[in-house]
Specification:
heterodimer; A: alpha+beta; Rieske Iron-sulfur Protein; 2 domains; 4-stranded antiparallel sheet; elongated; B: mainly alpha; Cytochrome Bc1 Complex, Chain C
Amino acid sequence: MSRQSPVQEEKTVGKPRRRRFLNWLWGGLAALACGEIVWFAGSLLKSRRRREEKRLALKLIDAGMVQNYKPGQVIAITDGSFYLACLDDGSFMALSRTCTHLGCSVPWDEKQQKFVCPCHGSTFDRNGSVLTAPAPRPLDYFPVRIENGLIRVDISTPLRRGSFSVSQAARV
Amino acid sequence: MASEAPSNKSLFTGFFLHLHPRTIPGETLRVQLSFGLGGMAAILFATMLLTGVLQVVSYSSHSNSAYQSIQQMYDEGSIGGFIRNIHFWGGNLLVVVTFLHLLRVYLTGAIDQTRRFNWITGVFIFILVLSANFTGYLLPWDQLAYWAVTIFTNMISYIPVVGDWLGETLRGGTEVGSATLANFFAIHVAILPSLLLVLLILHFWLVRKAGGLVQAETARSSEAVRVAAVPNLIQREAAVGLGLLAVLFIFAAFFDAPLADQANPGQSPNPAKAAWYFMGLQELLLHLHPVTAICIVPAMIIIGLVLLPFWQKAALSPGRWCGGKRGMLLALWSFIGGFLGALLIVVIDDRLIRLSTAITNKSTWLTRGIMPLAATIFFLMLLFVLLRKRNHPGAEALMSLVVVLTAFILGLTAVGIWFRGPGMILILPL
Protein backbone atom coordinates (compact mmCIF):
# COMPACT_ATOMS: atom_id res chain seq x y z
CA MET A 1 0.00 0.00 0.00
CA SER A 2 2.69 2.44 1.00
CA ARG A 3 4.44 1.88 -2.31
CA GLN A 4 1.39 3.08 -4.20
CA SER A 5 0.99 6.35 -2.40
CA PRO A 6 3.33 8.43 -4.58
CA VAL A 7 1.32 7.41 -7.66
CA GLN A 8 -1.91 8.46 -5.99
CA GLU A 9 -0.35 11.70 -4.95
CA GLU A 10 0.55 12.39 -8.54
CA LYS A 11 -3.05 11.71 -9.51
CA THR A 12 -4.39 14.29 -7.13
CA VAL A 13 -1.88 16.89 -8.25
CA GLY A 14 -2.79 16.20 -11.87
CA LYS A 15 -0.85 14.57 -14.63
CA PRO A 16 1.51 16.63 -16.72
CA ARG A 17 -0.31 18.30 -19.51
CA ARG A 18 1.49 16.51 -22.32
CA ARG A 19 0.74 13.10 -20.87
CA ARG A 20 -2.91 13.98 -20.44
CA PHE A 21 -3.03 15.20 -24.00
CA LEU A 22 -1.48 11.98 -25.29
CA ASN A 23 -4.00 9.94 -23.30
CA TRP A 24 -6.80 11.93 -24.86
CA LEU A 25 -5.22 11.35 -28.25
CA TRP A 26 -5.12 7.60 -27.69
CA GLY A 27 -8.73 7.61 -26.61
CA GLY A 28 -9.71 9.63 -29.65
CA LEU A 29 -7.83 7.31 -31.97
CA ALA A 30 -9.53 4.28 -30.40
CA ALA A 31 -12.93 5.90 -30.89
CA LEU A 32 -12.00 6.68 -34.48
CA ALA A 33 -10.98 3.06 -35.07
CA CYS A 34 -14.30 1.83 -33.64
CA GLY A 35 -16.13 4.28 -35.87
CA GLU A 36 -14.25 3.02 -38.88
CA ILE A 37 -15.19 -0.59 -38.14
CA VAL A 38 -18.85 0.37 -37.81
CA TRP A 39 -18.61 2.33 -41.05
CA PHE A 40 -17.02 -0.66 -42.84
CA ALA A 41 -19.74 -2.99 -41.61
CA GLY A 42 -22.44 -0.50 -42.55
CA SER A 43 -21.16 0.04 -46.07
CA LEU A 44 -20.78 -3.70 -46.56
CA LEU A 45 -24.40 -4.27 -45.56
CA LYS A 46 -25.51 -1.35 -47.70
CA SER A 47 -23.77 -2.66 -50.79
CA ARG A 48 -25.56 -5.93 -50.34
CA ARG A 49 -28.89 -4.19 -50.06
CA ARG A 50 -28.16 -2.22 -53.23
CA ARG A 51 -27.56 -5.48 -55.03
CA GLU A 52 -30.91 -6.71 -53.77
CA GLU A 53 -32.60 -3.52 -54.92
CA LYS A 54 -31.11 -3.78 -58.39
CA ARG A 55 -32.47 -7.26 -58.66
CA LEU A 56 -35.94 -6.09 -57.79
CA ALA A 57 -36.02 -2.81 -59.70
CA LEU A 58 -39.28 -2.61 -61.63
CA LYS A 59 -40.16 -6.23 -61.98
CA LEU A 60 -43.31 -6.59 -64.08
CA ILE A 61 -45.31 -9.79 -63.95
CA ASP A 62 -48.05 -10.66 -66.44
CA ALA A 63 -51.11 -11.95 -64.65
CA GLY A 64 -53.22 -12.85 -67.67
CA MET A 65 -56.02 -11.14 -69.64
CA VAL A 66 -58.85 -9.20 -68.06
CA GLN A 67 -61.55 -11.34 -69.66
CA ASN A 68 -60.23 -14.46 -67.89
CA TYR A 69 -61.34 -13.11 -64.53
CA LYS A 70 -64.81 -12.94 -63.03
CA PRO A 71 -65.73 -10.42 -60.30
CA GLY A 72 -65.19 -12.02 -56.92
CA GLN A 73 -62.33 -14.26 -58.05
CA VAL A 74 -59.01 -14.51 -56.21
CA ILE A 75 -56.17 -16.26 -58.02
CA ALA A 76 -52.70 -17.01 -56.66
CA ILE A 77 -49.96 -15.87 -59.06
CA THR A 78 -47.07 -18.06 -57.97
CA ASP A 79 -44.52 -16.32 -60.24
CA GLY A 80 -44.67 -13.14 -58.26
CA SER A 81 -45.89 -14.63 -54.99
CA PHE A 82 -49.03 -12.47 -54.82
CA TYR A 83 -52.78 -12.83 -55.24
CA LEU A 84 -54.72 -11.16 -58.01
CA ALA A 85 -58.17 -10.28 -56.72
CA CYS A 86 -60.98 -9.24 -59.02
CA LEU A 87 -63.23 -7.10 -56.87
CA ASP A 88 -67.02 -6.96 -57.15
CA ASP A 89 -66.95 -3.84 -59.33
CA GLY A 90 -64.59 -5.53 -61.79
CA SER A 91 -61.45 -3.68 -60.67
CA PHE A 92 -58.20 -5.54 -59.96
CA MET A 93 -55.96 -5.63 -56.91
CA ALA A 94 -52.62 -7.38 -56.45
CA LEU A 95 -52.28 -8.43 -52.82
CA SER A 96 -49.07 -9.50 -51.13
CA ARG A 97 -49.33 -12.97 -49.60
CA THR A 98 -47.34 -11.89 -46.54
CA CYS A 99 -49.41 -11.44 -43.38
CA THR A 100 -48.95 -7.97 -41.90
CA HIS A 101 -48.84 -9.44 -38.41
CA LEU A 102 -45.70 -11.59 -38.41
CA GLY A 103 -44.94 -12.36 -42.02
CA CYS A 104 -46.55 -15.77 -42.49
CA SER A 105 -47.75 -16.74 -45.93
CA VAL A 106 -51.52 -16.29 -46.10
CA PRO A 107 -53.57 -18.76 -48.19
CA TRP A 108 -56.92 -17.83 -49.76
CA ASP A 109 -59.77 -19.93 -48.39
CA GLU A 110 -62.19 -20.45 -51.27
CA LYS A 111 -64.95 -21.83 -49.02
CA GLN A 112 -64.95 -19.03 -46.48
CA GLN A 113 -64.12 -16.45 -49.17
CA LYS A 114 -61.36 -14.86 -47.10
CA PHE A 115 -57.63 -15.01 -46.42
CA VAL A 116 -56.88 -16.99 -43.25
CA CYS A 117 -53.43 -16.73 -41.70
CA PRO A 118 -52.26 -20.12 -40.35
CA CYS A 119 -49.97 -18.59 -37.74
CA HIS A 120 -52.15 -16.39 -35.57
CA GLY A 121 -55.56 -16.63 -37.17
CA SER A 122 -55.82 -13.16 -38.70
CA THR A 123 -58.36 -13.00 -41.52
CA PHE A 124 -58.59 -10.60 -44.46
CA ASP A 125 -61.34 -10.04 -47.00
CA ARG A 126 -61.00 -9.96 -50.77
CA ASN A 127 -59.48 -6.49 -50.94
CA GLY A 128 -57.06 -7.29 -48.13
CA SER A 129 -58.84 -5.42 -45.32
CA VAL A 130 -58.51 -6.92 -41.84
CA LEU A 131 -61.56 -8.93 -40.74
CA THR A 132 -60.10 -10.22 -37.48
CA ALA A 133 -57.04 -9.17 -35.50
CA PRO A 134 -54.18 -9.55 -34.54
CA ALA A 135 -53.08 -8.23 -37.96
CA PRO A 136 -52.58 -4.48 -37.48
CA ARG A 137 -53.14 -3.32 -41.08
CA PRO A 138 -54.51 -4.58 -44.43
CA LEU A 139 -52.39 -6.80 -46.66
CA ASP A 140 -49.80 -4.85 -48.63
CA TYR A 141 -50.56 -4.38 -52.32
CA PHE A 142 -48.66 -3.97 -55.58
CA PRO A 143 -49.48 -1.42 -58.27
CA VAL A 144 -51.49 -2.93 -61.12
CA ARG A 145 -51.70 -1.56 -64.65
CA ILE A 146 -53.83 -2.82 -67.47
CA GLU A 147 -52.41 -2.56 -70.98
CA ASN A 148 -54.60 -3.66 -73.92
CA GLY A 149 -56.52 -5.98 -71.63
CA LEU A 150 -53.34 -7.51 -70.19
CA ILE A 151 -52.94 -7.23 -66.42
CA ARG A 152 -49.39 -6.33 -65.39
CA VAL A 153 -48.21 -6.12 -61.77
CA ASP A 154 -45.10 -4.31 -60.57
CA ILE A 155 -43.83 -6.48 -57.71
CA SER A 156 -40.65 -4.50 -56.95
CA THR A 157 -41.99 -2.98 -53.72
CA PRO A 158 -45.06 -3.92 -51.71
CA LEU A 159 -47.02 -0.81 -50.72
CA ARG A 160 -48.29 -0.34 -47.16
CA ARG A 161 -51.68 1.17 -46.43
CA GLY A 162 -53.81 2.04 -43.45
CA SER A 163 -57.09 1.05 -45.04
CA PHE A 164 -58.62 0.06 -48.35
CA SER A 165 -59.45 2.79 -50.83
CA VAL A 166 -60.77 2.49 -54.38
CA SER A 167 -57.65 4.11 -55.80
CA GLN A 168 -55.54 1.07 -54.85
CA ALA A 169 -57.39 -1.06 -57.40
CA ALA A 170 -56.92 -0.76 -61.17
CA ARG A 171 -59.81 -0.83 -63.62
CA VAL A 172 -60.05 -1.11 -67.37
CA MET B 1 10.98 -21.58 -9.46
CA ALA B 2 10.47 -19.31 -12.41
CA SER B 3 13.58 -20.47 -14.20
CA GLU B 4 12.69 -24.15 -13.91
CA ALA B 5 10.47 -25.75 -16.54
CA PRO B 6 7.25 -26.95 -14.87
CA SER B 7 6.81 -30.70 -14.65
CA ASN B 8 3.90 -32.27 -16.51
CA LYS B 9 1.97 -32.74 -13.34
CA SER B 10 2.30 -29.21 -12.10
CA LEU B 11 1.45 -27.95 -15.60
CA PHE B 12 -1.82 -29.86 -15.42
CA THR B 13 -2.79 -28.98 -11.88
CA GLY B 14 -1.41 -25.49 -12.33
CA PHE B 15 -3.77 -24.91 -15.22
CA PHE B 16 -6.78 -26.05 -13.25
CA LEU B 17 -5.56 -24.17 -10.22
CA HIS B 18 -5.82 -21.03 -12.26
CA LEU B 19 -9.48 -21.69 -12.80
CA HIS B 20 -9.84 -22.86 -9.21
CA PRO B 21 -8.25 -21.65 -6.01
CA ARG B 22 -5.82 -24.00 -4.30
CA THR B 23 -8.25 -24.68 -1.49
CA ILE B 24 -11.99 -24.16 -1.28
CA PRO B 25 -14.44 -24.14 1.64
CA GLY B 26 -15.59 -27.71 2.10
CA GLU B 27 -19.12 -26.45 2.54
CA THR B 28 -19.38 -25.35 -1.10
CA LEU B 29 -18.78 -28.90 -2.34
CA ARG B 30 -22.37 -29.81 -1.41
CA VAL B 31 -24.21 -30.95 -4.54
CA GLN B 32 -27.49 -29.50 -3.24
CA LEU B 33 -25.92 -26.06 -3.16
CA SER B 34 -25.27 -25.71 -6.87
CA PHE B 35 -26.26 -28.99 -8.54
CA GLY B 36 -23.19 -28.38 -10.68
CA LEU B 37 -25.28 -26.31 -13.09
CA GLY B 38 -22.59 -23.76 -13.89
CA GLY B 39 -20.09 -26.50 -14.60
CA MET B 40 -22.63 -28.29 -16.78
CA ALA B 41 -23.15 -25.11 -18.78
CA ALA B 42 -19.39 -24.73 -19.25
CA ILE B 43 -19.03 -28.35 -20.39
CA LEU B 44 -21.94 -27.95 -22.80
CA PHE B 45 -20.43 -24.76 -24.20
CA ALA B 46 -17.16 -26.58 -24.87
CA THR B 47 -19.12 -29.40 -26.52
CA MET B 48 -20.92 -26.83 -28.70
CA LEU B 49 -17.60 -25.38 -29.83
CA LEU B 50 -16.19 -28.77 -30.71
CA THR B 51 -19.24 -30.19 -32.50
CA GLY B 52 -19.78 -26.79 -34.10
CA VAL B 53 -16.33 -26.70 -35.65
CA LEU B 54 -16.84 -30.25 -36.93
CA GLN B 55 -20.10 -29.21 -38.58
CA VAL B 56 -18.66 -26.13 -40.27
CA VAL B 57 -16.64 -28.54 -42.39
CA SER B 58 -19.65 -30.39 -43.79
CA TYR B 59 -22.31 -27.67 -43.74
CA SER B 60 -22.97 -25.42 -46.70
CA SER B 61 -24.35 -22.00 -45.87
CA HIS B 62 -26.07 -21.29 -49.19
CA SER B 63 -29.82 -21.34 -49.31
CA ASN B 64 -29.90 -23.71 -52.27
CA SER B 65 -27.57 -26.29 -50.76
CA ALA B 66 -27.90 -25.90 -46.97
CA TYR B 67 -30.80 -28.34 -46.62
CA GLN B 68 -29.10 -31.01 -48.74
CA SER B 69 -25.88 -30.65 -46.78
CA ILE B 70 -27.79 -31.38 -43.59
CA GLN B 71 -29.47 -34.38 -45.20
CA GLN B 72 -26.09 -35.69 -46.29
CA MET B 73 -24.97 -35.72 -42.67
CA TYR B 74 -27.45 -38.55 -42.16
CA ASP B 75 -26.21 -40.63 -45.11
CA GLU B 76 -25.13 -44.15 -44.34
CA GLY B 77 -21.64 -44.39 -42.95
CA SER B 78 -21.57 -40.72 -42.00
CA ILE B 79 -20.95 -39.66 -38.44
CA GLY B 80 -22.18 -36.13 -39.27
CA GLY B 81 -25.72 -36.86 -38.15
CA PHE B 82 -24.55 -37.94 -34.71
CA ILE B 83 -22.47 -34.78 -34.38
CA ARG B 84 -25.45 -32.65 -35.41
CA ASN B 85 -27.68 -34.46 -32.92
CA ILE B 86 -25.22 -33.74 -30.12
CA HIS B 87 -25.01 -30.10 -31.16
CA PHE B 88 -28.78 -29.74 -31.39
CA TRP B 89 -29.76 -31.47 -28.15
CA GLY B 90 -26.77 -30.01 -26.33
CA GLY B 91 -27.69 -26.52 -27.47
CA ASN B 92 -31.26 -26.90 -26.27
CA LEU B 93 -30.04 -28.38 -23.01
CA LEU B 94 -27.71 -25.40 -22.65
CA VAL B 95 -30.70 -23.04 -22.67
CA VAL B 96 -32.35 -25.09 -19.91
CA VAL B 97 -29.17 -25.44 -17.86
CA THR B 98 -28.24 -21.75 -18.15
CA PHE B 99 -31.77 -20.77 -17.10
CA LEU B 100 -31.66 -23.11 -14.10
CA HIS B 101 -28.20 -21.82 -13.22
CA LEU B 102 -29.47 -18.23 -13.15
CA LEU B 103 -32.39 -19.32 -11.00
CA ARG B 104 -30.08 -21.23 -8.66
CA VAL B 105 -27.73 -18.28 -8.26
CA TYR B 106 -30.62 -15.98 -7.38
CA LEU B 107 -32.38 -18.41 -5.05
CA THR B 108 -29.21 -19.17 -3.09
CA GLY B 109 -28.66 -15.47 -2.54
CA ALA B 110 -25.50 -15.21 -4.63
CA ILE B 111 -26.15 -11.66 -5.85
CA ASP B 112 -24.68 -9.64 -2.99
CA GLN B 113 -22.26 -6.76 -3.55
CA THR B 114 -19.28 -8.91 -4.48
CA ARG B 115 -21.29 -10.86 -7.03
CA ARG B 116 -23.39 -8.09 -8.52
CA PHE B 117 -21.40 -7.71 -11.72
CA ASN B 118 -21.11 -11.43 -12.19
CA TRP B 119 -24.90 -11.66 -12.04
CA ILE B 120 -25.15 -9.05 -14.78
CA THR B 121 -22.49 -10.89 -16.81
CA GLY B 122 -24.55 -14.03 -16.35
CA VAL B 123 -27.72 -12.33 -17.56
CA PHE B 124 -25.92 -11.25 -20.73
CA ILE B 125 -24.47 -14.72 -21.20
CA PHE B 126 -28.01 -16.10 -21.01
CA ILE B 127 -29.13 -13.62 -23.69
CA LEU B 128 -26.17 -14.67 -25.86
CA VAL B 129 -27.00 -18.35 -25.36
CA LEU B 130 -30.57 -17.68 -26.52
CA SER B 131 -29.26 -15.74 -29.52
CA ALA B 132 -26.83 -18.53 -30.39
CA ASN B 133 -29.62 -21.09 -30.25
CA PHE B 134 -31.88 -18.94 -32.32
CA THR B 135 -29.34 -18.13 -35.06
CA GLY B 136 -28.44 -21.81 -35.24
CA TYR B 137 -32.12 -22.65 -35.64
CA LEU B 138 -32.24 -21.16 -39.17
CA LEU B 139 -29.20 -22.93 -40.57
CA PRO B 140 -30.86 -26.25 -41.59
CA TRP B 141 -33.11 -24.22 -43.91
CA ASP B 142 -36.17 -26.39 -43.36
CA GLN B 143 -39.80 -25.35 -42.96
CA LEU B 144 -39.54 -25.23 -39.17
CA ALA B 145 -36.48 -22.99 -39.31
CA TYR B 146 -37.68 -20.76 -42.10
CA TRP B 147 -40.98 -19.83 -40.49
CA ALA B 148 -39.67 -19.59 -36.96
CA VAL B 149 -37.15 -17.05 -38.21
CA THR B 150 -39.72 -15.25 -40.37
CA ILE B 151 -41.95 -14.86 -37.33
CA PHE B 152 -39.14 -13.74 -35.06
CA THR B 153 -37.60 -11.19 -37.44
CA ASN B 154 -41.07 -9.78 -38.00
CA MET B 155 -41.53 -9.58 -34.23
CA ILE B 156 -38.44 -7.36 -34.16
CA SER B 157 -40.04 -4.99 -36.67
CA TYR B 158 -42.57 -4.02 -34.00
CA ILE B 159 -39.87 -2.31 -31.91
CA PRO B 160 -40.55 1.41 -32.26
CA VAL B 161 -38.19 3.60 -34.33
CA VAL B 162 -35.35 1.10 -34.97
CA GLY B 163 -37.45 -2.05 -35.43
CA ASP B 164 -37.88 -1.92 -39.20
CA TRP B 165 -34.23 -1.15 -39.77
CA LEU B 166 -33.08 -3.85 -37.35
CA GLY B 167 -35.40 -6.46 -38.83
CA GLU B 168 -34.30 -5.69 -42.38
CA THR B 169 -30.62 -5.65 -41.51
CA LEU B 170 -30.92 -8.98 -39.75
CA ARG B 171 -32.91 -10.42 -42.65
CA GLY B 172 -30.75 -8.73 -45.27
CA GLY B 173 -33.91 -7.75 -47.13
CA THR B 174 -37.67 -7.73 -46.82
CA GLU B 175 -38.00 -11.51 -46.82
CA VAL B 176 -36.03 -14.29 -45.21
CA GLY B 177 -33.69 -15.51 -47.94
CA SER B 178 -30.09 -16.29 -48.81
CA ALA B 179 -28.88 -13.01 -47.26
CA THR B 180 -30.57 -13.98 -43.98
CA LEU B 181 -28.81 -17.32 -44.02
CA ALA B 182 -25.43 -15.65 -44.63
CA ASN B 183 -26.07 -13.22 -41.76
CA PHE B 184 -27.19 -15.87 -39.32
CA PHE B 185 -24.31 -18.16 -40.24
CA ALA B 186 -21.76 -15.42 -39.56
CA ILE B 187 -23.45 -14.45 -36.30
CA HIS B 188 -23.77 -18.07 -35.20
CA VAL B 189 -20.27 -19.33 -35.95
CA ALA B 190 -18.16 -16.21 -35.43
CA ILE B 191 -19.70 -13.31 -33.55
CA LEU B 192 -21.61 -15.07 -30.77
CA PRO B 193 -18.95 -17.67 -29.87
CA SER B 194 -16.27 -15.00 -29.52
CA LEU B 195 -18.52 -12.76 -27.43
CA LEU B 196 -19.48 -15.75 -25.28
CA LEU B 197 -15.85 -16.73 -24.80
CA VAL B 198 -14.93 -13.24 -23.60
CA LEU B 199 -17.90 -13.04 -21.22
CA LEU B 200 -17.27 -16.57 -19.91
CA ILE B 201 -13.67 -15.76 -19.04
CA LEU B 202 -14.89 -12.65 -17.22
CA HIS B 203 -17.59 -14.76 -15.54
CA PHE B 204 -15.11 -17.36 -14.23
CA TRP B 205 -12.69 -14.70 -13.09
CA LEU B 206 -15.43 -12.92 -11.17
CA VAL B 207 -16.41 -16.17 -9.45
CA ARG B 208 -12.84 -16.49 -8.20
CA LYS B 209 -12.76 -12.84 -7.18
CA ALA B 210 -15.84 -13.43 -5.05
CA GLY B 211 -14.06 -16.29 -3.31
CA GLY B 212 -15.70 -19.23 -5.06
CA LEU B 213 -19.25 -20.39 -4.64
CA VAL B 214 -21.61 -18.67 -2.25
CA GLN B 215 -21.71 -20.10 1.28
CA ALA B 216 -23.78 -19.67 4.37
CA GLU B 217 -22.73 -16.94 6.78
CA THR B 218 -22.38 -19.36 9.69
CA ALA B 219 -19.89 -21.40 7.70
CA ARG B 220 -17.95 -18.29 6.74
CA SER B 221 -17.64 -16.85 10.23
CA SER B 222 -16.43 -19.99 11.92
CA GLU B 223 -13.62 -20.42 9.37
CA ALA B 224 -15.04 -23.68 8.14
CA VAL B 225 -12.85 -26.50 6.93
CA ARG B 226 -11.04 -25.74 3.72
CA VAL B 227 -10.22 -28.64 1.44
CA ALA B 228 -7.83 -28.90 -1.48
CA ALA B 229 -9.47 -28.16 -4.84
CA VAL B 230 -7.40 -30.95 -6.38
CA PRO B 231 -8.63 -33.65 -6.09
CA ASN B 232 -11.86 -32.86 -4.17
CA LEU B 233 -13.43 -30.33 -6.55
CA ILE B 234 -11.88 -31.67 -9.74
CA GLN B 235 -13.23 -35.15 -9.07
CA ARG B 236 -16.75 -33.87 -8.60
CA GLU B 237 -16.55 -31.71 -11.67
CA ALA B 238 -15.29 -34.62 -13.73
CA ALA B 239 -18.12 -36.80 -12.44
CA VAL B 240 -20.78 -34.24 -13.32
CA GLY B 241 -19.21 -33.33 -16.67
CA LEU B 242 -18.55 -36.87 -17.88
CA GLY B 243 -21.94 -38.06 -16.62
CA LEU B 244 -23.67 -35.26 -18.49
CA LEU B 245 -21.72 -35.96 -21.67
CA ALA B 246 -22.54 -39.67 -21.46
CA VAL B 247 -26.27 -38.95 -21.14
CA LEU B 248 -26.13 -36.40 -23.97
CA PHE B 249 -24.23 -38.73 -26.33
CA ILE B 250 -26.54 -41.67 -25.65
CA PHE B 251 -29.58 -39.48 -26.19
CA ALA B 252 -28.09 -38.12 -29.42
CA ALA B 253 -27.40 -41.63 -30.64
CA PHE B 254 -31.05 -42.60 -30.34
CA PHE B 255 -32.93 -39.42 -31.18
CA ASP B 256 -32.27 -37.49 -34.36
CA ALA B 257 -32.50 -33.71 -34.29
CA PRO B 258 -35.70 -32.66 -36.07
CA LEU B 259 -35.52 -31.79 -39.75
CA ALA B 260 -38.75 -30.82 -41.52
CA ASP B 261 -39.27 -30.42 -45.28
CA GLN B 262 -37.08 -27.97 -47.15
CA ALA B 263 -38.02 -24.33 -46.65
CA ASN B 264 -40.89 -23.21 -48.83
CA PRO B 265 -41.48 -19.45 -48.69
CA GLY B 266 -44.91 -19.89 -50.28
CA GLN B 267 -46.44 -22.09 -47.63
CA SER B 268 -46.48 -21.51 -43.89
CA PRO B 269 -46.94 -24.69 -41.90
CA ASN B 270 -50.02 -24.69 -39.72
CA PRO B 271 -49.44 -23.83 -36.92
CA ALA B 272 -46.22 -21.87 -37.47
CA LYS B 273 -44.39 -21.48 -34.17
CA ALA B 274 -41.27 -19.73 -33.01
CA ALA B 275 -38.47 -21.75 -31.40
CA TRP B 276 -39.69 -23.27 -28.12
CA TYR B 277 -37.78 -20.85 -25.86
CA PHE B 278 -39.53 -17.94 -27.58
CA MET B 279 -42.99 -19.51 -27.34
CA GLY B 280 -43.72 -17.50 -24.20
CA LEU B 281 -43.11 -14.35 -26.19
CA GLN B 282 -45.27 -15.57 -29.07
CA GLU B 283 -48.03 -16.44 -26.62
CA LEU B 284 -47.80 -12.96 -25.17
CA LEU B 285 -48.13 -11.60 -28.68
CA LEU B 286 -51.48 -13.36 -29.08
CA HIS B 287 -52.85 -11.41 -26.13
CA LEU B 288 -51.07 -8.08 -25.99
CA HIS B 289 -50.48 -5.13 -28.27
CA PRO B 290 -47.37 -5.99 -30.38
CA VAL B 291 -45.21 -3.13 -29.07
CA THR B 292 -46.03 -4.16 -25.49
CA ALA B 293 -45.34 -7.83 -26.08
CA ILE B 294 -42.23 -7.48 -28.22
CA CYS B 295 -40.60 -4.41 -26.81
CA ILE B 296 -41.85 -3.22 -23.45
CA VAL B 297 -42.18 -6.57 -21.65
CA PRO B 298 -38.78 -8.02 -22.71
CA ALA B 299 -37.09 -4.68 -22.00
CA MET B 300 -38.68 -4.61 -18.54
CA ILE B 301 -37.56 -8.19 -17.88
CA ILE B 302 -33.96 -7.49 -18.89
CA ILE B 303 -33.80 -4.20 -17.00
CA GLY B 304 -35.40 -5.89 -13.99
CA LEU B 305 -32.84 -8.72 -14.06
CA VAL B 306 -29.92 -6.30 -14.36
CA LEU B 307 -31.20 -4.08 -11.55
CA LEU B 308 -32.21 -6.98 -9.29
CA PRO B 309 -28.95 -7.09 -7.26
CA PHE B 310 -29.05 -3.32 -6.73
CA TRP B 311 -32.36 -3.49 -4.88
CA GLN B 312 -31.68 -2.86 -1.21
CA LYS B 313 -31.32 -6.17 0.57
CA ALA B 314 -32.40 -8.10 -2.52
CA ALA B 315 -30.01 -10.94 -1.76
CA LEU B 316 -31.56 -13.82 0.13
CA SER B 317 -29.50 -15.17 2.98
CA PRO B 318 -26.51 -16.64 1.14
CA GLY B 319 -25.82 -20.32 0.69
CA ARG B 320 -29.32 -21.49 1.58
CA TRP B 321 -32.11 -22.12 -0.87
CA CYS B 322 -34.82 -19.42 -0.82
CA GLY B 323 -33.49 -18.04 2.45
CA GLY B 324 -34.60 -20.99 4.54
CA LYS B 325 -37.50 -23.42 5.11
CA ARG B 326 -40.21 -20.78 5.20
CA GLY B 327 -38.88 -19.17 2.04
CA MET B 328 -38.81 -22.52 0.27
CA LEU B 329 -42.47 -23.07 0.98
CA LEU B 330 -43.24 -19.56 -0.21
CA ALA B 331 -41.25 -20.14 -3.41
CA LEU B 332 -43.12 -23.37 -4.06
CA TRP B 333 -46.52 -21.72 -3.70
CA SER B 334 -45.39 -18.73 -5.75
CA PHE B 335 -44.31 -21.08 -8.52
CA ILE B 336 -47.55 -23.03 -8.54
CA GLY B 337 -49.56 -19.82 -8.38
CA GLY B 338 -47.65 -18.15 -11.21
CA PHE B 339 -47.82 -21.20 -13.46
CA LEU B 340 -51.51 -21.92 -12.95
CA GLY B 341 -52.24 -18.20 -13.12
CA ALA B 342 -50.70 -18.09 -16.59
CA LEU B 343 -52.84 -21.01 -17.78
CA LEU B 344 -55.99 -19.49 -16.31
CA ILE B 345 -55.40 -16.03 -17.77
CA VAL B 346 -54.65 -17.49 -21.21
CA VAL B 347 -57.91 -19.47 -21.24
CA ILE B 348 -60.02 -16.56 -19.97
CA ASP B 349 -58.43 -14.05 -22.33
CA ASP B 350 -58.85 -16.46 -25.24
CA ARG B 351 -62.61 -16.43 -24.56
CA LEU B 352 -62.60 -12.63 -24.30
CA ILE B 353 -60.81 -12.26 -27.63
CA ARG B 354 -63.25 -14.58 -29.35
CA LEU B 355 -66.27 -12.78 -27.87
CA SER B 356 -65.13 -9.40 -29.13
CA THR B 357 -64.06 -10.14 -32.68
CA ALA B 358 -64.08 -6.49 -33.60
CA ILE B 359 -61.04 -5.27 -31.71
CA THR B 360 -60.56 -1.76 -32.97
CA ASN B 361 -56.92 -1.05 -33.56
CA LYS B 362 -57.05 2.41 -32.06
CA SER B 363 -57.69 1.41 -28.47
CA THR B 364 -55.69 -1.82 -28.31
CA TRP B 365 -52.60 -0.06 -27.01
CA LEU B 366 -54.71 0.92 -24.00
CA THR B 367 -56.76 -2.23 -23.42
CA ARG B 368 -54.02 -4.65 -24.45
CA GLY B 369 -50.97 -2.60 -23.58
CA ILE B 370 -51.11 -0.20 -20.69
CA MET B 371 -53.99 -1.77 -18.75
CA PRO B 372 -52.55 -5.30 -18.47
CA LEU B 373 -49.15 -3.87 -17.53
CA ALA B 374 -50.67 -1.63 -14.88
CA ALA B 375 -52.72 -4.53 -13.53
CA THR B 376 -49.61 -6.73 -13.34
CA ILE B 377 -47.60 -4.08 -11.51
CA PHE B 378 -50.50 -3.45 -9.13
CA PHE B 379 -50.85 -7.17 -8.43
CA LEU B 380 -47.12 -7.54 -7.73
CA MET B 381 -47.10 -4.56 -5.40
CA LEU B 382 -50.13 -5.91 -3.56
CA LEU B 383 -48.46 -9.31 -3.20
CA PHE B 384 -45.31 -7.65 -1.88
CA VAL B 385 -47.21 -5.65 0.74
CA LEU B 386 -49.21 -8.70 1.83
CA LEU B 387 -46.08 -10.79 2.24
CA ARG B 388 -44.40 -8.04 4.23
CA LYS B 389 -47.50 -7.88 6.46
CA ARG B 390 -47.10 -11.60 7.09
CA ASN B 391 -43.58 -10.89 8.35
CA HIS B 392 -41.65 -12.22 5.41
CA PRO B 393 -38.32 -10.41 5.08
CA GLY B 394 -38.03 -8.02 2.11
CA ALA B 395 -35.71 -10.33 0.23
CA GLU B 396 -38.17 -13.21 0.54
CA ALA B 397 -41.11 -11.09 -0.59
CA LEU B 398 -39.10 -9.95 -3.60
CA MET B 399 -38.17 -13.55 -4.30
CA SER B 400 -41.83 -14.46 -4.33
CA LEU B 401 -42.48 -11.83 -7.04
CA VAL B 402 -39.52 -13.06 -9.11
CA VAL B 403 -40.67 -16.67 -8.82
CA VAL B 404 -44.28 -15.76 -9.70
CA LEU B 405 -43.11 -13.95 -12.84
CA THR B 406 -40.72 -16.75 -13.80
CA ALA B 407 -43.44 -19.37 -13.38
CA PHE B 408 -45.83 -17.15 -15.34
CA ILE B 409 -43.42 -16.99 -18.28
CA LEU B 410 -42.86 -20.76 -18.05
CA GLY B 411 -46.65 -21.21 -18.05
CA LEU B 412 -46.99 -19.10 -21.19
CA THR B 413 -44.17 -21.08 -22.80
CA ALA B 414 -45.88 -24.36 -21.92
CA VAL B 415 -49.17 -23.13 -23.41
CA GLY B 416 -47.36 -22.11 -26.60
CA ILE B 417 -45.53 -25.39 -26.97
CA TRP B 418 -48.23 -27.89 -26.05
CA PHE B 419 -51.64 -26.25 -26.02
CA ARG B 420 -51.67 -24.42 -29.35
CA GLY B 421 -52.89 -26.36 -32.35
CA PRO B 422 -53.56 -25.47 -36.00
CA GLY B 423 -54.48 -21.82 -36.40
CA MET B 424 -52.97 -21.26 -32.94
CA ILE B 425 -56.27 -22.36 -31.39
CA LEU B 426 -56.15 -23.61 -27.81
CA ILE B 427 -56.22 -27.39 -27.70
CA LEU B 428 -55.53 -30.17 -25.25
CA PRO B 429 -52.43 -32.16 -26.18
CA LEU B 430 -52.86 -35.84 -27.17
